[in-house]
Design goal:
105 residues; 0% strand; 5 helices; mainly alpha
């Protein structure tokens, strides 16, 4: 019997953690959507990942930068890291405010 090649799609849906804030209070937390966004990225749905959680790309940029600074020392690494962290925090805050504004209006 010949071997048949198969493609297994990595799906995180069975392993996603529930949002405690949403279970207790019925409202999304600022991190709601991140796990689903990562799952969408793994499936190549880049626009849907951004729409699900807009801070996913700044977070990826920050993680990439932090991982490369272990190997490459940059002169302005501290300033770049601070700018990226502010970008991530700002994106999370703005997207959460917009999400709550759309929910309550």
């Amino acid at each position: 019997m010949p071997l048949q090649p198969t493609i297994f799609a990595l799906s995180l849906k069975d392993y996603m953690l529930p949002c405690l804030n949403k279970q207790l209070f019925g409202l999304d937390c600022p991190g709601c959507g991140m796990q689903r966004s990562v799952d969408l990225l793994f499936h190549g749905e880049f626009l849907a990942a951004f729409q699900m959680y807009p801070a996913i790309y700044p977070i990826i940029m920050l993680l990439f930068f932090l991982s490369t600074t272990f190997f490459v020392k940059l002169k302005y690494a501290q300033q770049i890291k601070m700018v990226l962290m502010l970008l991530v925090a700002g994106t999370i805050i703005v997207s959460y405010i917009l999400k709550m504004n759309n929910l309550f209006n």
